[in-house]
Amino acid sequence: MGCNQSTPPTRPTSASAFEETRYQITFLLEHEIIGEFGEKVITNPLNSSSDSYKKEMKQNVYVKSIHSSVAKYVQSYGMNVGDIIEKISVEGPDGFEHEVISLDDTIKSLLNNDRPITVTCCRKRYNEKLLQYWKWRIRKDTNKNGYLDLNNQGITTNDGIIIGELLKTNNTLTILHLDNNNITDVQSIGDGLKTNNTLKELRLYNNNITDVQSIGGALKTNNTLTGLNLNHNNITDVQSIIDGLKSNNTLKHLFLYNNNITDDSGIQSIIDVLKTNNSLKTLYLDNNQLSYNMKSQLKAIQQYKRDGSNGYQQVKGMVIWT
């Protein structure tokens, strides 16, 4: 008889990257102390590129610690450290329901003094099936040189959120291609780049990406990435990318061809950044909405970089495509 082989995980279709669990727990008069509470910013990672992104940011109150006197009681309801408190209902004839947004004095008083109260909590965690699928897929398809081709796979933002999370601890990938998918939001991938220390090349060609703030933020601390391809997207603002280049000293090739970058998209800042950046060797900005004047300035800077003249650090063979 042959050896039993475990069945490979299947990719969940139309699956959210997160699973949410909600529950209610009532604290009575004898539950004098619940624990400590904290406050953190919660955003919707699927909408961080939208116009309403800032409106969706919320200060949420979470369980920072659980007091030993109620530990067994709350355990029976499933309360854990880190759970978000969404609502507090006060019992009695004058009772009311209060939505919890920030840890203000009212919320502190309700949690610490008022009894009985019923607390509605939420726990968010990564979709386990989607997480296990991408762990398996990355391990299976990464070749011995660390190259993973995930082009044309119908990968969505939800998949991208999981891939970004796995990038945080992955130490085998050196080249990751994600071209021609539908990863419209790259917040998680940018977060993954902040701690990943093996990836050298990332391609996100043709994904209808609009917001690259997280990737720009990652460039400030990432010290392994040498090639970043964001061609054929819908990027309009590159200020965060340019800000990242101020301190980045490893990125050599930056592809921003065929986006919607204009003179007012932060590109003006590249003129100053390239004076001190000595790692970037190729910059692709063609087929955007740059003015003739801006293109002329960038062509002049290309020569300054090649020569090391006019206050610009020399990078031999520097190419700026406009």
Please state how the strands of the largest beta sheet are arranged side by side: 7-8-9-10-11-12-13
- Which regions are unreliable across 5 or more consecutive residues at pLDDT < 50? 44-57
Kindly identify the CATH topology of the largest domain: Leucine-rich repeat, LRR (right-handed beta-alpha superhelix)
Strand-residue proportion: 15-25%
Second rung of CATH, namely the architecture of the largest domain: Alpha-Beta Horseshoe
Name the quaternary structure.
Answer: single chain
| The CATH homology group name of the largest domain | Ribonuclease Inhibitor
Task: Indicate how many domains the architecture comprises.
Answer: 2
As a whole number of angstroms, the C-alpha radius of gyration is: 25 Å
Tell me, briefly, the overall form.
Answer: elongated
N-to-C series of helices and strands: EEHEHEEHEHEHEHEHEHEHEHE
The pLDDT mean sits at: 91
N- and C-termini, Cα separation: 64 Å
Structural class: alpha/beta
Summarize the structure in words:
The protein has helices at about 55, 70-75, 105-110, 130-140, 155-165, 185-195, 215-220, 240-245, 270-275, 290-305, and strands at about 20-25, 35-40, 60-65, 85-90, 95-100, 115-125, 145-150, 175, 200-205, 225-230, 255, 280-285, 320. It is of the alpha/beta class and about 325 residues long. It has two domains: about 20-125, Pdz3 Domain, CATH 2.30.42; about 130-320, Alpha-Beta Horseshoe (Leucine-rich repeat, LRR (right-handed beta-alpha superhelix)). α8 packs parallel to α9. The longest helix has 16 residues, at about 290-305. Mean pLDDT is about 90; it is low at about 45-55.
